[in-house]
Amino acid sequence: MRKASEKDYDRVIKYLSSAISECLYLYIDIKQYRFENSNIGVWIEEKNGKIEFVSMKYYDSFQLYCKGLPDQHIIDDVANLISLNPVSMIEGRKDIIEFLCKIVPGYETSYGVIYQIDDEGYYENNSEDVTVASEDDAYDIANLICSNKDIGGYYSVDGLAKQLADRIRSGVGRSIIIKRDGKVCAHIATYAEADDVAVISGLIVHSKGGKSDDYLKIRSYLVKLLREENKKAYGYVNADRLIKFHDKIHKRCCEYGKMVISKS
To answer: Model-level pTM?
Structure first.
């Protein structure tokens, strides 16, 4: 496995493009940042001149992808790469994580489903109090997200605030918020965004400052924006009750796995 450089860009993007929904963060971040961002490192495994595996370290996480089941020697190489570049979170298609979690200790593993948010007529934009966040809102948003262990339990407030501010500043992601009394009380975001796709995540409403219709209101606003820009929207879901709900209205793309460093 070797570190990729700018000359590999076209080959890597072509490889990832065959199944974007299985490698969303890899595809978007490499497409947006290429190989010039100091917070990104990309490694590729090749055989006979063809790419067989792509690994990306972005801040404190690894994103992994390959077509089909990976060979054991590739998983061993990935495990070694992670040992040399320790992170708090590792994510990839379910079968990849199932292999990796057996040989990389110290992580708790969970699984979920990636959906394409493609239903028509479900959302309406009646959201006068919804706004697009600025960099100045990043710390307040991070505080809100980290208050919920299900969606923010593996982040630190400072680390997440830095990522959010970077994504807002660069245009790779945008946060949509509702503010009341100067505080962010509801949030949703595109955690990653390119010219053709976006990942929706971070939907949370404050238990005290939020209102019952804020969930639908803020999500409707963002989905409408993406539709107007002809971007395909995807979402990650890991709660059983929400998976059952999404199965009824959205297109199921694939199952994914996540390894989060154990705090015990």
So the answer is: 0.80
